[in-house]
Design brief:
Layout lengths: L2 E7 L2 H16 L3 E2 L8 E6 L4 H19 L5 E6 H13 L5 E3 L7 H13 L8 H6 L9 H6 L2 H7 L14 E5 L1 E2 L10 H5 L3 E2 L2 H13 L4 E5 L7 E3 L13 E2 L16 E3 H11 L5 E5 L8 H9 L6 E3 L7 H6 L6 H14 L4 E8 L6 H13 L2 E8 L7 H5 L6 H24 L5 E10 L34 E4 L17 E6 L5 E6 L2 H7 L3 E9 L4 E6 L4
Parallel strand pairs: 1-2, 1-3, 1-18, 3-4, 4-5, 6-9, 9-13, 14-15, 15-16, 20-22
Antiparallel strand pairs: 7-8, 8-11, 10-12, 17-19, 17-21, 19-20, 21-22
Helix pairs in contact: 9-10, 10-11, 14-16
The structure holds 5'-deoxyadenosine (5AD) and iron/sulfur cluster.
5'-deoxyadenosine binds next to strand 15.
């Protein structure tokens, strides 16, 4: 059967899409390979959130395009957000692309690949025209609600997931489960509502069942995914059924969150969903969720985080800016004061909760004063980390039409670096407060030794030779047949200034604080991967917490 190479760019949602595509194509007999040179079908699952991610994908597409132009027979497919956003333009730039498939069309991918293979094997006898190929790049993403409910073939894609080694990340024993697709927020800078379409909520029974099956396959950690998870709300009895099953449901308007949570059992709220998974699938030792939206986050969810020991005390809740004027231009729907109030409420109600977020610098018209307000927010609140992005205008967004990209790149870069330095200080402070405590660490990676030029810079108290890992440096166990590139949320926020001469096991606390333990050797480090251990924190820096060392016996 045909061999497939699949490379993924961008966010966790894309990683999950790739996993589903892999499952779907494997079932049909396709074989996944790690080397694009060995593949009959090369697929790029692309991201449009920022320009940088697109440029990377363009360069990969260009390389395969050249091989095709030189006579190699390859089906070259672009899936994900670029296919949706950039369809016609992409084909103009890279006529060697055989198929495109947006994120809301992925259930049709096998058919598109099959068509492309047949076309090629007929010696290009009937090459599809540019228009025909573009038509396949999706028109379902902002579907009418009736259609979305009745024809939710994407739900079928999620339901057809394979529960195997790959779905739990191999030894990492960590899986992702989608709870909502799309987004209804229309932040002015963001392409997601245009590429992923309207917010659709999956039926709670499907979600719980998927978690249960992942746990049976060996998952100890599950991350629930959605663009704004706290808006999850499923109204029972409303849904059209597909093949006798519940159907996914278009999200309600924001007014649904202004009243008290419903007492009626006809609705499943996000808090109820979390508690259900926690209670019904106790084999899951770590239940996380990303991303939260800073508005409409009820105390009911905070209470579940406080009361359910296996729900992680972690909130990824992007502020995006500390300036009310910029937040308005971004159409975020909350003020700085409301954001601060929410974080204070979370800190008060959920002991040890850790807060992280995203920030955009250099949004159009951002003045020094606006930027200073973002800096003061990062000084004021105990962010464990923030992913900081320079604004890039994205075609298909409101901002690109409405505002000139008037902050010069040099200023964006300066603001980016200034904010990174402030965040680094804040992270150092947050981390230092954990020294001496015993925490549960779920280990997910090992880090091989490197020759050190510059040791121990990062440590608050020095314990042994060593340094920090940067997020970028953490090795990823890549699932067979796929390569993970440039996760949107793992920019090198801080420079990695040195290496270590020891093997390390790397993991995370419930609050997602990155921890590292020096190991006596490779096997001692690897043994920890996919396990949850009580460990003591002995020192810290801006990037990670250092744990007591481990040996083969420990
Ligand atoms: N420019 C820069 N950053 C962006 N993000 C989304 N769109 C843009 C853009 N046009 C960032 C936001 C979001 C994260 C996933 O990416 O901070 O939370
Ligand atoms: Fe984009 Fe805003 Fe939706 Fe997040 S909430 S996906 S930033 S539109």
């Amino acid at each position: 059967m045909h061999s497939v190479f699949l490379e993924t760019f961008g966010c966790q949602m894309n990683e999950l899409d790739s996993e589903l595509v892999r499952g779907q194509l494997s079932t049909l007999g396709y074989r996944f390979v790690n080397d694009p040179a060995e593949a009959r079908v090369v697929l790029f699952n692309t991201c449009s959130v920022r320009e940088q991610a697109e440029q990377k994908a363009y360069s990969r597409i260009g390389i395969v395009g050249k091989r095709k132009a030189a006579g190699e027979t390859i089906v070259l497919g672009v899936i994900g957000c670029m296919a949706e956003r950039d369809g016609v333009d992409l084909l103009r730039r890279h006529p060697q692309v055989d198929l495109m498939c947006g994120p809301a069309e992925l259930d049709r991918l096998p058919q598109l690949i099959d068509n492309a293979l047949r076309t090629q094997s007929a010696e290009d006898a009937m090459v599809l025209s540019r228009e025909e190929r573009t038509a396949l790049a999706g028109n379902r993403s902002r579907r009418s609600s009736t259609l979305a409910a009745a024809e939710d073939n994407l739900e079928t894609l999620d339901l057809s997931r394979a529960f195997d080694e790959e779905s739990i990340g191999g030894l990492r024993r960590s899986a992702q489960v989608r709870i909502t697709r799309g987004c209804n927020k229309f932040c002015t800078y963001c392409v997601v509502p245009a590429t992923r379409g309207a917010e659709i909520h999956r039926p709670p029974d499907h979600i719980v069942e998927e978690c249960r099956r992942l746990a049976e396959a060996g998952a100890l950690e599950v991350t629930l995914l959605g663009q704004t998870v706290n808006h999850y709300r499923y109204e029972h009895g409303l849904a059209v059924t597909v093949d006798g099953r519940q159907a996914a449901q278009v999200g309600p308007g924001l007014t649904a969150f202004r009243s008290a949570p419903p007492a009626s059992s006809r609705v499943t709220t996000f808090a109820q969903l979390l508690r259900r998974i926690h209670d019904e699938v106790p084999q899951i030792l770590r239940l996380r969720f990303v991303t939260s939206y800073p508005r409409d986050f009820g105390d009911d969810v905070l209470a579940v985080m406080r009361d359910c020991p296996r729900v992680c005390k972690y909130l990824h809740i992007p502020a995006q800016s500390g300036s009310d004027r910029i937040l308005k231009l971004m159409n975020r729907g909350y003020s700085r004061g409301e954001y601060v109030d929410f974080v204070q409420r979370a800190l008060a109600l959920v002991p040890d909760v850790c807060i992280a977020g995203d920030i955009i610098v250099g949004f159009p018209t951002e003045t020094d004063d606006d930027f200073e307000q973002t800096c003061s927010l990062v000084r004021e609140l105990p962010f464990k980390n923030n992913f900081i992005f320079k604004y890039s205008p994205r075609p298909g967004t409101v901002a690109i039409d409405r505002f000139a990209d008037d902050v010069p790149d040099a200023v964006k870069r300066l603001r980016n670096n200034t904010l990174l330095a402030i965040q680094s200080e804040t992270s150092r402070r947050v981390h230092a407060a954990w020294i001496g405590r015993t925490v549960d660490v779920f280990f997910s990676d090992v880090r091989a030794p490197r020759i050190s030029h510059n040791q121990s810079k990062d440590e608050t108290t020095h314990t042994s030779a060593g340094t920090h890992a940067s997020l970028m440096e953490l090795p990823q166990f890549s699932a067979a047949g796929s390569v993970r590139v440039d996760p949107v949320r793992t920019e090198p926020n801080q420079p990695d200034d040195s290496g270590s001469t020891c093997w390390q096991a790397v993991g995370r606390t419930s609050g997602d604080l990155i921890c590292s333990a020096f190991a006596s050797d490779e096997s001692a480090a690897k043994k920890l991967v996919g396990t949850l251990k009580k460990m003591q924190i002995i020192s810290s820096g801006p990037l990670l917490l250092r744990l007591s060392a481990v040996s083969e016996e420990s």
